[in-house]
Amino acid sequence: GDYYNQGEIRKKELEQSCCVLGIPASDVTVIDHRDLPDDPAVEWDTQLLATLVLKHIEAKNINLVLTFDAGGVSGHANHISVYSAVRYNVCKLLWVPPWAAAGSSWCCWCRVLVLESVNLCRKYISFLDVLISCLLPRDALFILTEEETEQAKRAMRCHRSQLLWFRQLYLLFSRYLVVNSLRLL
């Protein structure tokens, strides 16, 4: 994102973060579109974003999409817009018979998992949320090992331009660095 005119810095930070996670730079795509400004208060155009997402899914032959849920984990409008665009594609394609979906049959082979947004208390109780998450319904549950948690923290620290005080607290206390519950869309 280019919030605060930091687009180039944040792009490099994203590439560094992905490297820490073992994701090659060739698998990282940054979309810089004038109608999709990086702004936590701006909702993006669902159809435009849905088109861009679908093109990427088809071009890269992606069979699993992991996205935010309707709460965007933090209420960030851009995060919610991504969910809306993916949901738009899934709903649009599910209502069209496969033989009529000319070149857009990804609904038949691409699964979508959405990351569950939790309330503020659960969001910041770190590993203590594992028990709660195990007891609640979900389609998938990922519990990170201590090594994976440290790797995720190293990846987050690559985003130096975004590490404001509240994100420092996130690194210390967020359940998302330990446990993630997802559901199928």
TrEMBL record:
Q: Which gene encodes it?
A: Pigl
State the family it belongs to: Belongs to the PIGL family.
The GO terms describing molecular function are: N-acetylglucosaminylphosphatidylinositol deacetylase activity
EC number(s)? 3.5.1.89
Q: Name one GO biological process term.
A: GPI anchor biosynthetic process
Q: Which organism does this record belong to?
A: Sinosuthora webbiana
InterPro entries in the record: GlcNAc_PI_deacetylase-related (IPR003737), LmbE-like_dom_sf (IPR024078)
Give one Pfam family, short name only: PIG-L
N-terminal signal peptide: none
Question: Could you identify this protein by its name?
Answer: N-acetylglucosaminylphosphatidylinositol deacetylase
Gene Ontology CC annotation, any one? endoplasmic reticulum
